[in-house]
Design goal:
The complex is a heterotrimer of chains A (222), B (640) and C (257).
Chain A: H1 10-35, H2 42-54, H3 58-85, H4 103-106, H5 108-127, E1 133-136, E2 139-142, H6 144-152, H7 155-182, H8 190-219
Antiparallel strand pairs in A: 1-2
Helix pairs in contact in A: 1-3, 1-7, 1-8, 5-7, 6-8, 7-8
Chain B: H1 18-25, H2 31-34, E1 38-42, H3 46-58, E2 61-65, E3 83-84, H4 96-106, H5 113-133, E4 147-148, E5 158-159, H6 165-183, E6 186-189, E7 192-200, E8 203-211, E9 217-221, E10 224-227, H7 248-255, E11 260-261, E12 266-272, E13 295-299, E14 314-315, H8 317-321, H9 331-343, E15 355-358, H10 360-366, H11 368-386, E16 395-404, E17 407-408, E18 421-423, H12 441-462, H13 474-493, H14 499-513, H15 520-540, H16 552-576, H17 600-603, E19 605-611, E20 620-626
Parallel strand pairs in B: 1-2, 1-10, 2-6, 10-18
Antiparallel strand pairs in B: 3-5, 4-5, 7-8, 8-9, 11-17, 11-19, 12-16, 13-14, 13-15, 15-16, 19-20
Chain C: E1 8-17, E2 26-36, H1 41-54, E3 77-78, E4 81-82, E5 104-108, E6 117-119, E7 122-123, H2 126-133, H3 155-165, H4 172-176, H5 183-194, H6 197-200, H7 203-216, H8 227-231, H9 239-254
Parallel strand pairs in C: 1-5
Antiparallel strand pairs in C: 1-2, 3-4, 3-5, 6-7
Helix pairs in contact in C: 2-7, 3-5, 5-7, 5-9, 7-9
Classes of the chains: A mainly alpha (222), B alpha+beta (640), C alpha+beta (257).
């Protein structure tokens, strides 16, 4: 690739991280909202997940999702590595106060690693986890609800899950508004609003996700 | 003594036509031949950067040198208030002729008329050029450029970019220069200090520099040398100049034969933050533009320490003495009046060596926000340094050395008495006479660099033969050896006092005797003291460290050595100029009202000093360039 | 208030000392006694250096020039913050009244791969010049300009351009950024010229060229941390980085090579 290409530049790569990030935000929001079916009933939850996996477009959607995640992660790792290399000798005294900058922004990569590890574990646990069967309205399908409840009733797993969701909250709270800045939009009047919106979005997603283990652990007696 | 070397080469004809006629009469270098000429430009302030950029655009091969780590840092960057031009956008009666008139009068009739007229003529082109480069001058709501007033003028002709005009203009010139560096037409040498001028057959053909990082002594050859290295205000140690501003390049040229003109013409700026302790390393200017809205006062009674005193106990002395110009009298006048008040015992602040500059009325009239819009960064700067809030209490100000009108003598083509050596900006002497008006330094630097030297250097190159000279020439080797020896000598003394200590002592002598007010007795004393100090320096200076590495002690020592010589010449020039004019105030020559009394009969000339000393024994011959005032009639300068 | 309440404090200085670019470097520990609170930070270092010279030791090299906050020559990371912990300030404007008696003050050079140390606290910032050379200008030759008032510029835009143009090129943004990114510096120039009609003609090539040069010089990438703007002596806004991002996108889309 031409070293002067858009895709080699830091800004170009940043914008790709932002773009994939925004798309993933859409996915995460969908995921969080539909998961709330767990609060409705086990059948609703299982029927929705069955509908999802039997949709012929699922492979296509999954492929895109994998690409988005891989793209987001690989490009971000590349940028992080080169940024770390941009200061070979670290400061001996640390900055304090406002000149230190945003703690969340500085640690996006750490949050990213935690989320990525979780992601793999998450897929192993659920997507490729125990396949319980159930029959709803005469249709045989996977009883994902049972697996989810089993897992969330394990204190250690639930604790880990909640921790990751808090990390995700921070990641999204910076990520969303940061990507808008990265695409080139900044306005003294609107940017603070966008930042608040990002925060609200992250909170919504995190609350949705966290409510599930809490529900399973404390309330659901199925 | 008259001297044929001091031919000003001013073209004949009416003053308004001289420059046009001269541009036509000068020889040209054809575009293909320009590539064959190399030009060295030393310094990257407004004059140097604009010259380097313009010469490179014309096709010359330019080598540019600066002592800082980047060409963008030269001290022009610190100019605050603005730049004059005769655009007459406000329609308040300005014209090229009025700008010319004001500048000659403001300079107390000690500038060369033809140069000043040309300066006023090209002033408008400068504004056009800078705006085209993207310099964000202040604008009104209609999108047009706005102006403000400066001392010594009754029209608004000063273009400005808040309190950072110098910065914006320099960044403009610097970026023009960087454009050429990118193209390869300018070769940039940063962190280099010029330590000698190399002459071959009496013509300036190159320079010897020290690489301030590696310590290496380097030789560079060219067909002409342009010196734009600024003034010598730091002779006083404390001044508003940057710490690295120095006279070494100009001084070494002087010792190689370039005449030094009017060294005693120094400008003491009236509005600077006062000295607060012995450790003080420099003084900070508060822009003259502040006098547009700030009012200068001291208590009517002696020894009053409170600033919050009733109106009737305040003496707004500039408004009282000079009702028509008020707080906007020229700098020399304002400075002297401040000194008189302090000498009377009516100075303010803990030291008693300050006067007030008060914005109470401005804040009341315009509101704090409007004041902040105009002067915000200056107020902020003041607060950082003093810890006091000028919106609430008056600023304390006192005069400080700011600018030097004197410099290497140049003719109308900006060429010194050494063929091939051209001198621009503050480093030359030509345009400001005995006092520079506010916002004229930026104008002159850029006029010289953008609009004068590109024409006149072509004339020099086209009208001389240029034998092939490389740095292998004997003259370069001899110069490099001399420079190396001097470094070794400085490092070898291993005395007891640091270069700064000598510099501080020199500064005290200069400020005491060659400062705002000078007397024959004091000036004689100064010469002896400086000469003694110089002797002590060469016997007792302690320069530590490695010549082959970054070594700021060695840098300082070399500069102080030169200041110790130049200081003596300044005192001598001041002694021989038996008159008061502009910034040069001789106690023996004043009116009953303590105003400067010029002596046009005997001193309507520029004094150009030729170095004739040897080693530590300084000596000079004084030559004169008669100044003829055909257009601005010699008159007593009055701002009442 | 200053002028009336000069006090003396004692400080323990830890000053970075490094003979040259390849030297490893270490801290010099120095007791600064009776430091007047009226002094500027650099004057305090001047006094230290004079004392070191008296002791026959080599003084610490540091960059400085105008000492009034405009030339951009002074640098230093003081207790981990570029130009010290106060905002809107350069090291030369920092005064000792901002320090407490008995405090330990750690002084380090600006650290970045693109700013190699020359000696002690002096670093090489010529990468900035090289970035400007690739587009930080308007290509107008001397004498080719039209009348200054032919092109009106709205006051609001002109003011924004001015604010971006107040950058002093000190490099504090790079020093402060955890990624050692030069985005704030580069964007200030791109935005300054993009906001003015004079800069319009070359805006695509400018952003394209300068950003690629910035990357080539080895600066890190921007992750919108904001330490740069908080550390900037001229308080240059992050808005400029957004402008750079879109100018670059535009430049990349329209670049024909």
């Amino acid at each position: 690739m031409n070293s002067n290409s858009y895709f080699c530049s830091t800004i170009g790569r940043k914008q790709l991280v932002g773009l994939t990030g925004l798309a993933l935000c859409g996915f995460v929001l969908m995921h969080a909202l539909t998961n709330m079916l767990i609060l409705v009933s086990p059948d609703a939850y299982n029927k929705y997940s069955h509908a999802l996996v039997t949709n012929p477009l699922i492979y296509f959607a999954e492929a895109i999702l994998v690409l988005l995640f891989l793209g987001h992660i690989v490009i971000a790792i590349g940028l992080t590595v080169s940024s770390k290399g941009a200061r070979p000798e670290k400061y001996h005294a640390g900055a304090s106060g406002v000149k230190a900058g945003s703690v969340v922004a500085k640690n996006m990569w750490k949050q990213g690693i935690i989320i990525a590890i979780f992601l793999v574990y998450h897929l192993i646990t659920f997507k490729f986890g125990t396949y319980y069967k159930t029959t709803i309205d005469g249709v045989e399908m996977r009883d994902l609800h049972r697996l989810v409840v089993e897992m969330f009733q394990l204190p250690l797993y639930s604790g880990f899950y909640v921790f990751v969701m808090v990390v995700l909250f921070f990641h999204l709270s910076h990520g969303l508004s940061s990507s808008i800045q990265t695409f080139g939009f900044h306005h003294p009047k609107h940017t603070p609003k966008i930042e608040k919106l990002g925060l609200a979005f992250a909170a919504l997603v995190a609350v949705c996700f966290v409510s599930q283990p809490l529900y399973c652990f404390f309330i659901y007696k199925g | 003594m008259s001297n044929q070397k001091l031919d000003s080469k001013v073209p004949s004809g009416d003053i308004a036509d001289k420059w046009e006629k001269h541009k036509f009469d000068m020889k040209l270098v054809n575009p293909a031949n320009k590539r064959k000429f190399e030009i060295i430009v030393v310094g990257t302030g407004l004059a140097g950067a604009s010259a380097a950029a313009s010469l490179a655009e014309l096709g010359y091969k330019v080598k540019s040198f600066c002592i800082q780590d980047s060409a963008r840092r030269a001290h022009s960057i610190a100019a605050q208030g603005g730049i004059n031009a005769a655009k007459n956008y406000p329609s308040d009666g300005d014209s090229v002729y009025r700008l010319f008139y004001d500048t000659v009068k403001g300079g107390d009739f000690r500038a060369r008329e033809a140069n000043v007229y040309r300066l006023a003529q090209v002033s408008n082109n400068i504004i056009d050029q800078c705006v085209a480069q993207g310099v964000p001058f202040a604008r009104d709501y209609g999108g047009m450029l706005t102006n403000r007033s400066f001392g010594g003028a009754q029209v608004s002709r000063t273009f400005y970019a808040r309190g950072q005009t110098g910065q914006q203009l320099l960044i403009g010139a610097y970026s023009a220069m960087m454009k050429e560096v990118g193209k390869g037409t300018i070769q940039l040498f940063d962190r280099r200090e010029m330590l000698d001028l190399v002459l071959v057959d009496g013509v300036a053909r190159g320079i010897t520099v020290r690489n301030l990082v590696s310590g290496e002594i380097e030789s560079h050859s060219a067909h002409a040398v342009v010196l734009a290295t600024g003034g010598y205000g730091n002779t006083y140690f404390l001044s508003t100049n940057a710490k690295n501003s120095n006279a070494t390049a100009a001084w070494r040229c002087h010792k190689k034969g370039a005449y030094f003109a009017n060294p005693c013409f120094t400008q003491i700026h009236p509005t600077c933050i006062p000295v607060s302790g012995d450790y003080q390393s420099k003084l900070t200017l508060m822009s003259e533009s502040l006098r547009n809205d700030g009012r200068v006062w001291v208590p009517k009674d002696k020894g009053v320490k409170e600033w919050n005193i009733p109106e009737e106990q305040r003496d707004y002395y500039l408004e009282r003495i000079y009702p028509s110009f008020g707080n906007l009298v020229p700098r020399d006048v304002a400075s002297r009046q401040a000194k008189f008040r302090v000498d009377e015992g009516r100075g303010v602040g803990t030291s008693g060596v300050a006067v007030y500059l008060d914005f109470k009325d401005a804040v009341q009239r315009m509101g704090q926000e409007a004041v902040s819009e105009k002067y915000g960064n200056l107020f902020q700067m003041y607060e950082k340094i003093t810890g006091e809030d000028p919106y609430k209490q008056p600023m304390r100000i006192y005069p400080a050395v700011h600018y030097t009108m004197g410099g290497l003598w140049v003719d109308y083509n900006l060429q010194s008495t050494i063929p091939g050596l051209h001198v621009l900006g503050e480093a030359n002497f030509s345009d400001h006479g005995a006092n520079r008006l506010g916002a004229s330094a930026l104008m002159q630097g850029l006029a010289d660099g953008y609009f004068v030297i590109p024409y006149t250097i072509g004339h020099f190159l086209a009208s001389h033969k240029h034998p092939e000279v490389t740095t292998d020439h004997e003259a370069f080797k001899a110069s490099a050896n001399e420079v190396r020896q001097k470094s070794e000598q400085l490092l070898g003394i291993k005395g007891k006092k640091s270069p700064d200590e000598f510099h501080r002592n020199l500064g005290k002598v200069m400020w005491e005797y060659v400062g705002m007010s000078r007397s024959a007795e004091g000036l004689k004393k100064a010469q002896i003291e400086i000469s003694n100090l110089r002797e002590e320096f060469w016997a007792n200076v302690n320069v530590i460290g490695d010549p082959k590495n970054k070594n700021s002690e060695l840098e300082k020592a070399g500069r102080v050595a030169d200041f110790l010589e130049l200081g003596e010449l300044m005192a001598r020039d001041a002694l021989e100029r038996e008159e008061s004019c502009g910034g040069h105030f001789r106690e023996e020559h004043q009116t009953a009202e303590n105003e400067a009394k010029r002596n046009d009969e005997d001193f309507a000339h520029a004094a150009a000093w030729e170095y004739s000393g040897q080693d530590l024994k300084m000596n000079w011959n004084r030559h004169r360039e008669e100044l003829n005032f055909e257009y601005v009639k010699l008159a007593t300068r009055s701002y009442k | 208030m200053a002028g009336s309440s000069a006090q003396s404090i004692n400080l323990k200085l830890k000053v970075w000392q490094q003979r040259g670019p390849k030297d490893k470097g270490q801290f010099l520990e120095y007791d600064a006694k009776n430091v007047s609170t009226e002094m500027s930070f650099l004057e305090m270092l001047d006094v230290m250096n004079e004392d070191l010279v008296k002791q026959g030791k080599e003084p610490i090299e540091f960059d400085h020039d105008c000492r009034e906050g405009i030339c951009g020559m002074c640098s230093l990371v003081i207790n981990g913050s570029a130009h010290g912990k106060d905002q809107a300030i350069t090291t030369c404007q920092l005064h000792m009244r901002r320090f407490k008696d008995g405090e330990t003050v750690t002084i380090e050079p600006f650290r970045a791969k693109a700013f190699p140390v020359i000696k002690d606290l002096v670093v090489d910032r010529s990468a900035f010049d090289r970035i400007i050379q690739t587009g930080g200008f308007v290509s107008v030759s001397t004498g080719a300009a039209q009348d200054a008032n032919n092109l009106p510029v709205g006051k609001e835009k002109s003011d924004r351009a001015f604010e971006a143009a107040t950058c002093i090129g000190c490099g504090a943004c790079v020093a402060a950024c955890p990624n050692a990114s030069a985005s704030l510096f580069v964007s200030a120039k791109i935005a300054h010229l993009a906001l003015l009609p004079q800069g319009e003609v070359e805006r695509e090539q400018r952003a394209y060229g300068m950003v690629h040069k910035m990357d080539e010089e080895g600066f890190g990438s921007c992750t919108n941390i904001g330490a740069c703007s908080a550390s900037c002596p001229k308080e240059i806004s992050l808005e400029n980085i957004a402008i750079m991002n879109r100018e670059f996108l535009r430049g990349s889309l329209t670049h024909r090579k």
